[in-house]
Automatic annotation (TrEMBL):
<protein>
    <submittedName>
        <fullName>Glycosyltransferase</fullName>
    </submittedName>
</protein>
Length: 382
């Protein structure tokens, strides 16, 4: 495991904030998207002295761009060049994700509109390999347009920053992923007693992304659990994947899980999408959550587990180990070392239940991330 070290730009942002006692001005940011937990937690809990106040525009409703979206932001209206030209009420454009369906030519037209109207572009590189695309070529072509032309780049890990520098010769600010679980829930779940029980290992089979390949992982877990009587493998899956009428029904996966559950090799739970409250309860009930990815870059799921004290077993593809402490196993694309997964699980078992990150630490981190973003916007507008 590698612990994430303190991030330099956050310390610098806080020091710069402390040196500047002036009343901050407001900066209006068009964020693509705005209604996402990551973006919500880029705002400080309380106003930070000496730091510009950031006002993020609401996502326009895709069905009626003249009004804010309530919960639907896809496809992002702010990615339309005409929207950029027709809306002067923002100072900075900050792209997070949501451009999956855009051609490189459409992305270029959007950047051209930003240039014409004099608004800087900030891009947070969450994904260097799109988890929704089996073929990486479209995403690579999109990044070839966005990354070199962005006025500032942000990413979540030093490993991702190094890859960005290697591929495009560009430097990215490294700012960690803020907490995912809200502080009240973190406090509530941390205070609950944890009764003695079997070691519980979970795999979540939600609406399958292209990057997910859970069946080989689950086979290893079941084989291991049969040799470890105090272990329980819990698989939670969505109905659209595991029931025949589901839009993304996977017959091979569903048949294996039903057969394994019938012989007592795993605890299978099939349900619709969980609410946030249900999801946090479920994650907190696990000792370990296994990420069944073949490729990827970063993970919000990993951060939620850290908030709740649930250990994470993650593949060595992407930069999950840079993002936070994980028990790593070897899996990249179609290469999978099953023995390394068994070793990672055994290490997680031997380490015992981990403590969740403290609310104080997460709040301090969030303040630093918020200050760093606000000061970055301010510097671009100078």
């Amino acid at each position: 495991m590698r612990n994430r070290e303190p991030i330099g730009p956050i310390r610098s942002a806080l020091l710069e904030r402390d040196r500047d006692p002036r009343t901050p001005r407001s900066i209006r940011v068009a964020s693509v998207p705005a209604d996402h937990v990551y973006v919500h937690h880029l705002a400080p809990v309380d106003e930070l002295p000496g730091v510009p106040v950031i006002e993020r525009l609401a996502d326009p409703d895709p069905d009626d761009p003249l009004r804010p979206a309530q919960s639907k932001w896809w496809p992002p209206v702010m990615l339309e060049p005409d929207w950029v030209r027709e809306h002067p009420e923002f100072d900075v454009m900050h792209l997070q994700f949501g451009f999956d369906a855009r051609t490189p030519e459409q992305v270029q037209e959007w950047i051209d509109a930003l240039r014409e109207t004099g608004r800087p572009l900030v891009y947070t590189v969450h994904d260097l390999r799109n988890p929704h695309h089996l073929d990486r070529r479209l995403h690579d072509a999109q990044l070839d347009v966005i990354v070199p032309q962005a006025d500032a780049l942000v990413t979540l890990t030093r490993g991702a920053a190094a890859e960005i520098r290697e591929r495009w010769g560009c430097d990215a600010h490294v700012l960690p992923h803020p907490h995912v679980v809200d502080f009240a829930t973190m406090a509530d779940l941390a205070e609950r007693s944890r009764p003695a029980r079997p070691f519980r290992v979970g795999v979540h089979v939600k609406s399958l992304r292209a990057s997910m390949d859970p069946l080989p992982v689950i086979r290893v877990l079941c084989d291991l659990a049969e040799r470890m009587p105090d272990w329980v493998v819990q698989v939670n899956g969505h109905r659209d994947v595991l029931e025949p009428r589901g839009d993304r029904y996977d017959a091979e996966l569903a048949d294996f899980l039903q057969t394994a559950a019938a012989r007592g090799a795993l605890d299978l739970r099939i349900h619709d999408f969980l609410s946030d409250a249900e999801l946090w309860e479920y994650l907190a009930s696990l000792d370990v959550s296994v990420l069944p990815y073949r490729f990827g870059t970063h993970s919000g799921w990993l951060e939620a587990c850290r908030d709740l004290g649930t250990a994470v077993v993650a593949p060595n593809c992407g930069y999950f180990s840079d993002q936070g402490p994980v028990f790593a196993y070897e899996r990249v694309e179609d290469s999978f070392d099953t023995a390394s997964l068994e070793r990672a699980l055994q290490r997680a078992h031997d380490a015992g239940r981990r403590e969740p990150l403290s609310i104080r630490a997460r709040r301090t981190e969030r303040e630093g991330v918020a200050a760093a973003h606000a000061l970055l916007y301010e510097r671009l507008l100078r």
